[in-house]
Design a protein that fits this description.
The protein is an alpha+beta fold. The protein is about 55% helix and about 20% strand. Strands 6, 7, 8 and 9 form a 4-stranded antiparallel sheet that branches. Strands 3-2-5 form a 3-stranded antiparallel sheet, covered by helices on one side. A two-stranded antiparallel ribbon has the order 1-4.
Length: about 350
């Protein structure tokens, strides 16, 4: 026999001796438990004691005058679901109610909670004797009533919106805490699972979903067609703008050329006018010069130059002859021509 076995046997012997002498038995408080003592003796303060035993302690007590009850401090789960064999009930245990617009719906819901260790004496005295009693008679009772009312505030279509379901679940948590915290129970979370409508309504919803998907598909196709149309319009606008720009460029080029030609012709006209004016001024100056005393002499000089080398005949004066005192050039030329003709004959 080794030393460890010997030690265990000695402890058992001591415990047995104490039980035999005092009638006491040990009560071990688990690692995640809190213990509450109840005094049944005729002396001292009777009933549930405010003293609590922390996790891991061992208490010896006489069952004739003292009781010890323990509660689990871990998070507890209340799972109400339609899936058989998974939740807290063997059969269907989901929560069934009506939406605010009158449709039947069933909802899986999971509630997590724990006790407040400091409230363990109050729980034992006023609420429940153990964890199972607390879960079934208190937490479950509240969980089967208040959530129905709160989730029933949603319309049928709103159950498809996860954010709205989550908001109602948070509201359920708040309301359940308001009810349960005085009893030493703290609700940590409320989560929703699957939800189901009655078969006919479910089928109608599915058909509506298909129709909505088709509508959305058509909207997408329409939007795509509109975008294609806008793209083509923009392309056409670009081509028109390009044509306009080209036409404007041609117009500006033609305008510049026309303006240059106009300026050129204007300058040419101005030159012609200037030349004409200069020529006219020269003629006018010549006329003025010829109309004076020197003009006659110039004319005679020119006549002399013209008659130079010509045969000159003397004609008698008077009686139809030539009067040398006044020379009529036209008559002189005419006469000169007649004489020339007569000489040829």
């Amino acid at each position: 026999m080794n030393n460890r076995t010997t030690t265990i046997l000695k402890r058992i012997a001591v415990v047995g001796l104490m039980i035999a002498i005092t009638g006491c038995i040990p009560q071990r408080i688990g690692a995640k438990e809190v213990g509450v003592k109840t005094n049944k003796a005729l002396f001292g303060t009777r009933g549930v004691q405010q003293e609590i035993a922390e996790s891991g302690q061992v208490k010896f007590y006489n069952p004739l005058v003292t009781d010890w009850n323990t509660f689990d401090k871990n998070v507890q789960i209340l799972d109400m679901t339609a899936v058989q064999g998974r939740g807290d009930r063997a059969g269907r245990d989901d929560m069934r109610f009506k939406t605010i617009d009158g449709n039947d719906i069933s909802l899986d819901i999971i509630i997590s909670y724990r006790i407040n260790p400091e409230s363990a004496p109050t729980i034992l005295q006023d609420v429940a004797k153990n964890d199972e009693d607390l879960k079934e008679n208190i937490v479950r009772t509240i969980a089967r009533s208040k959530p129905r009312d709160i989730f029933g505030e949603l319309e049928t279509e709103e159950f498809y919106d996860a954010a709205k379901r989550a908001a109602q679940a948070e509201k359920v948590k708040m309301v359940m805490n308001e009810i349960l915290e005085p009893y030493g129970v703290i609700v940590g979370g409320v989560n929703t699972g699957d939800y189901r409508f009655n078969p006919e309504y479910q089928r109608a919803i599915e058909e509506k979903k298909v129709a909505d998907q088709q509508v959305e598909k058509n909207r997408s196709a329409t939007a795509a067609a509109e975008e294609e149309y806008k793209r083509k319009v923009e392309e056409a606008k670009g081509e028109v703008a390009k044509m306009i720009a080209k036409a404007d460029g041609e117009f500006e080029r033609a305008k510049i050329e026309a303006d240059a030609y106009y300026i050129q012709q204007q300058r040419l006209a101005e030159a012609i006018i200037a030349e004409g004016e200069a020529e006219a001024a020269g003629i006018l100056a010549m006329n003025e010069a010829l109309s004076g005393a020197g003009g006659e002499a110039m004319v005679k000089l020119k006549i002399a130059e013209a008659l130079s080398g010509k045969k000159i005949m003397m004609l008698p004066i008077g009686g139809g002859g030539l009067d040398v005192r006044s020379t009529d050039i036209n008559s002189l030329l005419q006469l000169y021509g007649l004489e020339k003709v007569a000489g040829k004959k």
